[in-house]
Amino acid sequence: MPEFKIQHITKYSYDNFVRDSANKIILFPIVDIYQDVIKHDLTITGSPQVDTYVDYYGNEVGSFTYTERHTQLIINSQLMVNTHARPLPVDTMFASEQWTELFNLRYIVPYIDFLKQEYFEGLIELQPVVENERKTEDTPYHTALKFCQYVYKNFEYIKGVTTVETTLDEIWKIKAGVCQDFAHLLMVMLRLVGIPARYVSGYICPNRDGMRGEGATHAWAEAYIPGYGWLGIDPTNNCVANEMHVRLAVGRNFSDCSPVKGVYKGSANHRLDVSVSVGYEDSHLPQEKDIFTESTFPKAESTASRNSYARYMEIVQQQQQQQQ
């Protein structure tokens, strides 16, 4: 039962005064029998009231508006989380029975959302790969593990190789990417054979063996297994998500799990800095002054050393939109 400390800081800096900064945040970890939030301190510039609600996918979402004129907005989330080991699925049902059960979920809410494919021209090329990896006698669980291994072995993990404009087709062609790319590809494969798949955002914590993306933000997929439920599968590390994975939110894809996004009024440009630190309960996490860099905008040589999924969040989803 490991206990982790997590600090996730989002910092907006403006070159002139702005106002009415309205934001939606998904920084509240999932709470269930496998994950406990011992403590959560959320501090925001100006101390605005944060109203919370649960969205369609079960994520706790906060919203706030900072109305005063300001040149800086900092959202600092500090967590202490306990995780518990989850048992693996036991295939007590015949494979044919499990596939029949999945087939019957096609028109049942909420599985419909998690079976719908995103537009992907490469499906024509991916389909024979999926059929080759899948064997008739395989259960959905073993099929999911095989697909996970395929992504892990056939796609190279390279930080910075994908950008905000990178599509699934481009990832398929270059056979490389980072954790969110791996998760999206795995979900495509799972959905092709009728296994509901959803996207998971969160954090992966350090362990002795070392894992890709550890100590920072991370992404993986969950597959729905008959008789078991949602099983986390991490294609970046070719493993079942376990007590080292802290779940933040789930959805159809990354856009449903955006940790911070919003709008503001003003003509000022803005700079965005994001930092995530993850450690064990007795570890030291750096303070704000140790986290933020002095650079005006991230440069290629500096961003290459940071977690690629964090950069993806910075550029795509945490970027504020300007309202004149």
Automatic annotation (TrEMBL):
Pfam families from the UniProt entry: Bact_transglu_N, Transglut_core
What InterPro entries does the annotation carry?
Answer: Bac_transglu_N (IPR013589), Papain-like_cys_pep_sf (IPR038765), Transglutaminase-like (IPR002931)
Q: Where is the Transglutaminase-like domain?
A: 171-237
Q: Which residues cross the membrane?
A: none
Task: Provide the protein name.
Answer: Transglutaminase family protein
